Automatic annotation (TrEMBL):
Ranges for domain Carbohydrate kinase PfkB: 64-208
Record keyword Nucleotide-binding present: yes
Pfam family membership, one: PfkB
Organism: Salix purpurea (Purple osier willow)
Protein name listed in UniProt: HEXOKINASE FAMILY MEMBER
GO MF entry, a single one: fructokinase activity
Length: 250
């Protein structure tokens, strides 16, 4: 049977920066201690769309700047380290008039982070893409993906991340981001609820590699063993959507 309207929507459209990650050739070391690095596809908001194992980018190619580089490691103490090479990178130069509006309007879910809010013109492109997706009835999924070294200041990061907070339907934050945004060192339901908004469908707080705390209309606690960060968001998106919904990259 033919369908129309929202029933035709079958895409997860992800908006964000494209990266090439460089990871150490050995595990459990700091960036300074790494003997060498291997390049790998980045795993951020703009990298998260796959269909049939093939990443697809729908926003075109920027020839005025290069793809950003990120050196990433997970140290033996469980802490991550990042070093970025951009300023500018291609994603920072995206303009509102370059948006693929047809693709955005076809999204069942529109997923984004906060790094594209750091500078213009990408910030305006990000905000316009959100408006278009929301008007088209997409579920808005937000993972702030805080990377403080990229922001001019912590205050600017907090202001911009929270400025679009109320627009989302689903938000995933880490325990570190919860502490940063609330100013509280308590990682509990009461603290998480200060970030809750009446229009939210789901607010999730991940706690490292052990488990997570979920908030769904009211406080609920789940045990998510070894499912964190980007993997968590990807699994969640697939859980919330029908099996025939496939992800795409903007």
């Amino acid at each position: 049977m033919a369908s129309n309207g929202e029933n035709d929507k079958s895409l997860i459209v992800s908006f964000g920066e494209m990266l090439i990650d460089f990871v150490p050739t050995v595990s459990g070391v700091s960036l300074a201690e790494a003997p060498g690095f291997l390049k790998a596809p980045g795993w951020c908001s703009g990298e998260r769309g796959y269909r049939g194992g093939e990443a697809r980018r729908k926003g075109g190619v920027c020839r005025k700047a290069r793809t950003a580089l990120a050196f990433v490691t997970l140290r033996a103490d469980g802490e991550r380290e990042f070093m970025f090479y951009r300023n500018p990178s291609a994603d920072m130069l995206l303009r509102p008039e370059e948006l693929n509006l047809e693709l955005i309007r076809s999204a069942k879910v529109f997923h984004y982070g906060s790094i594209s809010l750091i500078v213009e013109p990408c910030r305006s492109a990000h905000l316009e893409a959100m408006r278009v997706a929301k008007r088209a009835g997409a579920l808005l999924s937000y993972d702030p993906n805080l990377r403080l070294p990229l922001w001019p200041s912590a205050e600017e990061a907090r202001e911009q991340i929270l400025k679009i907070w109320d627009e989302a339907d689903v938000i995933k934050v880490s325990d570190v981001e919860l502490e940063f945004l609330t100013g509280s060192d308590k990682i509990d339901d009461e603290t998480a609820l200060t970030l809750w908004r009446p229009n939210f469908k789901l607010l999730l707080v991940t706690l490292g590699v052990i488990n997570g705390v979920g908030v769904c209309h009211k406080i609920l606690t789940f045990s998510w063993q070894k499912v964190v960060g980007d993997e968590f968001s990807d699994c969640l998106s697939r859980y919330l959507l029908p099996d025939d919904v496939g992800p795409h990259i903007l």
